[in-house]
Design goal:
This protein has about 350 residues and is an alpha/beta fold. The protein folds into two domains: about 5-110, Rossmann fold (3-Layer(aba) Sandwich); about 125-339, P-loop containing nucleotide triphosphate hydrolases (Rossmann fold, 3-Layer(aba) Sandwich). Helices cover about 40% and strands about 20% of the residues. The protein contains 15 helices and 15 strands. The chain has helices at about 15-25, 40-45, 45-50, 100-105, 140-150, 170, 180-190, 195-200, 215-220, 225-235, 255-260, 270-285, 290-295, 310-320, 325-339; strands at about 5-10, 30-35, 55, 70-75, 85, 90-95, 115, 125-135, 155-160, 190, 200-205, 210, 240-245, 265-270, 295-300. A seven-stranded mixed sheet has the order 11-12-9-13-8-14-15. A six-stranded mixed sheet has the order 2-1-3-4-6-5, with helices on one face. A two-stranded antiparallel ribbon has the order 7-10.
C-alpha cells in the first residue's frame, strides 16, 4: 500500500505536535508525515519532500501560493461538506474528534476503487480470536473489551463486534458512523477504497474497533464467504496482529468461522444449565463434522460478585487487574505464543 505524503505546518505548534503524535500512533500505515515550522520552510523544501497534501491552520490565497498539491485548512468555521472552496483548497473543522479530521483529509485524496481478489481463505495474520457464549451473553462485551485492552499493550488489536445489541454502540456513542455495514458491502461487492475502509475503524487508547452495525439484522444474514472476505480486507490493508471477534447469532457459516479461528473463548457459569448446554454444543459439533473446534475451546468461567451491578467500563477495569484478568492473560499468552 502506498502511503499519502502529508505535510503539516501550523501556527498552533502545540496542536500540531499532539495531532502529529496521534497520526503516528494510529495512522502510520496511511500517511508519510513531514513536519514544517513555517510555510516558507515548506516552500523551500517542496520539491524535495514530494508531499501530496498540506495541512495548515491559516487560510492562504491560492493565487499567491505556488504549489499544485491539495491544501487542507483546519478552521473553526468549516462548511458541513468538505468541498473545495477554491481550486485544491478544503476546509475541515479543527476542534472535533481526530478521526473525523483524518476522514476529512483522506476525503481529498480521491483514490480509485480497488478490486478484492480472495479465494475465501484469509492469510495467517491477523490471528483471529473468537468470543462466544451459550448463556452469559451480557458479559461478552466487557470480556472482549478486557481482552482488547490487555492485547493492545503489546499487539495491534482490532475488535469486530458480530453480537446483536452487544452494548458497544451505546457505550461509545458512535452516532451515525457506519462500520460493519460498510465492511460487509465492500466484501460482498468485491470493490473497496482504502479511505472508505479506514473510515470504518475507530481508535481507542491502545486498540481499535469496527463501528458496530446500526441495523443488527444484517448480522443474521451474513454468509461465510462474506465473513472471510471481510477478514481478507482487514488482512490486506489494515495490518493488525490480532482480530478479536465477538460472535452472536449463528449466521450461515458460523461453525466454519469458529473453525478457522486460532482460539474460541467460551464464556460460562458453574451451573447445571451451563454444563448441559455446553455438552449439547459438543454433540452438535461432532454431528456436523466440526469436532476440531473443541480443541480450540478455552472455557472462561465468569466470576460472581460486584460485576452484577457495575457499569461496563468499571467492570473492564476490575477484571483487567484482578485474578480473572490474570487468567485471561495466561490464556492469551498460550494462544499467541503457540498459535
Amino acid at each position: 500500500m502506498q502511503r499519502i505524503k502529508l505535510a503539516i505546518c501550523m501556527k498552533d505548534a502545540e496542536y500540531q505536535s499532539r495531532f502529529t503524535n496521534y497520526l503516528f500512533g494510529h495512522y502510520k500505515e496511511q500517511f508519510e508525515l513531514h513536519g514544517y515550522t513555517s510555510l516558507l520552510q515548506f516552500m523551500e523544501n517542496v520539491e524535495k519532500g514530494g508531499e501530496q497534501i498540506l495541512l495548515i491552520d491559516e487560510l492562504v490565497d491560492r493565487a499567491e501560493f505556488d504549489w499544485e498539491g491539495t491544501i487542507v485548512c483546519l478552521t473553526e468555521d468549516a462548511p458541513r461538506e468538505n468541498t473545495g472552496l477554491e481550486k485544491g483548497i478544503y476546509r475541515v473543522e479543527k476542534y472535533q474528534d481526530a478521526d473525523r479530521i483524518v476522514e476529512g483529509i483522506l476525503g481529498t485524496a480521491g483514490e480509485p476503487l480497488c478490486e478484492l481478489e480472495s479465494n475465501g481463505i484469509p492469510g495467517n495474520t491477523p490471528k483471529t480470536l473468537a468470543v462466544y457464549s451459550l448463556s452469559e451473553t451480557e458479559y461478552q462485551l466487557p470480556f472482549v473489551l478486557t481482552m482488547a485492552s490487555i492485547l493492545g499493550e503489546s499487539q495491534k488489536t482490532l475488535v469486530l463486534d458480530l453480537q446483536e445489541n452487544s452494548g458497544l454502540q451505546q457505550l461509545f456513542d458512535d452516532g451515525e458512523n457506519q462500520g460493519l455495514e460498510e465492511l460487509m458491502v465492500m466484501a460482498e461487492g468485491g470493490k473497496y477504497s482504502k479511505n472508505r475502509l479506514f473510515s470504518c475503524i475507530c481508535h481507542k487508547e491502545n486498540w481499535d474497533y469496527v463501528y458496530p452495525a446500526k441495523d443488527t439484522q444484517c448480522i443474521g444474514g451474513l454468509e461465510s464467504k462474506t465473513y472471510f472476505k471481510m477478514l481478507e480486507l482487514i488482512r490486506k490493508d489494515l495490518h493488525y496482529d490480532i482480530l478479536l471477534v465477538n460472535f452472536g447469532t449463528r449466521f450461515l457459516g458460523f461453525f466454519q468461522a469458529l473453525e478457522r479461528s486460532q482460539a474460541v473463548f467460551l464464556l460460562k457459569r458453574q451451573s447445571i444449565l451451563s454444563q448441559g448446554r455446553e455438552q449439547e454444543l459438543e454433540r452438535e459439533l461432532i454431528q456436523k463434522g466440526f469436532s476440531r473446534i473443541m480443541d480450540k475451546l478455552i472455557r472462561m468461567e465468569i466470576p460472581f460478585g460486584s460485576s452484577q451491578v457495575m457499569p461496563c467500563e468499571r467492570l473492564v477495569e476490575e477484571w483487567k487487574w484482578n485474578e480473572f484478568g490474570d487468567q485471561i492473560r495466561r490464556s492469551i499468552l498460550g494462544v499467541t505464543q503457540n498459535g
